[in-house]
Amino acid sequence: MLPHLDAAYNLARWLAGNDHDAQDVAQEASLRAFRFFGKFRGENPRAWLLTIVRNAFYTWLRKNRPPENTVELNDETLAAEDVLANAEADNPQFADAGAVRRAIAELPVEFREVVILREMEGFSYKEIAELAEVPIGTVMSRLARARKLLQKRLAREFNQGDQR
User: Fold this and answer.
1) Domain extent for 23
2) Is the domain of 60 the same as that of 109?
3) Which residues, 6 or more positions from 12, have their beta carbon under 8 angstroms from its beta carbon?
4) Which terminus of the chain has fewer Cβ atoms in its 10 Å neighbourhood, N or C?
5) What's the pTM?
6) Measured between alpha carbons, how far is 15 from 11 in angstroms, rounded to an integer?
């Protein structure tokens, strides 16, 4: 499990939104993984550990924070301007990694986790579906919606940058 502790903390950090809470979640997950390591029979210890992190986060979330608002999505909500295609070439400040991090942090948690697992941790749709215990279609839908929300948020920030 030791080679995967960085990935575990990274997921906890993105889900919790700050270092202090992420440390609590990662520590709890590590303790759970250690406690149940003898029962691990899978092929992918990284996915197994991140599943424990995810479950530890949701347990921590229920105990420590009021429920996050979920986003009601419809076609109008998802209609994002397609200004991002050449935005980086037109405006170098748009390539700011901080803007991307802020946009990801603003996503509802169910969308944020699939973005992190897919784009940062490199899991396949199937692996994410197994890890999150949801159908693969749900993973694909959440990821598509998350990308649309990110696109819309970054387009809005880019347009505000033009007005400065």
Assistant:
1) 2-64
2) no
3) 21, 22, 23, 25, 26, 29, 53, 56, 57
4) C
5) 0.69
6) 6
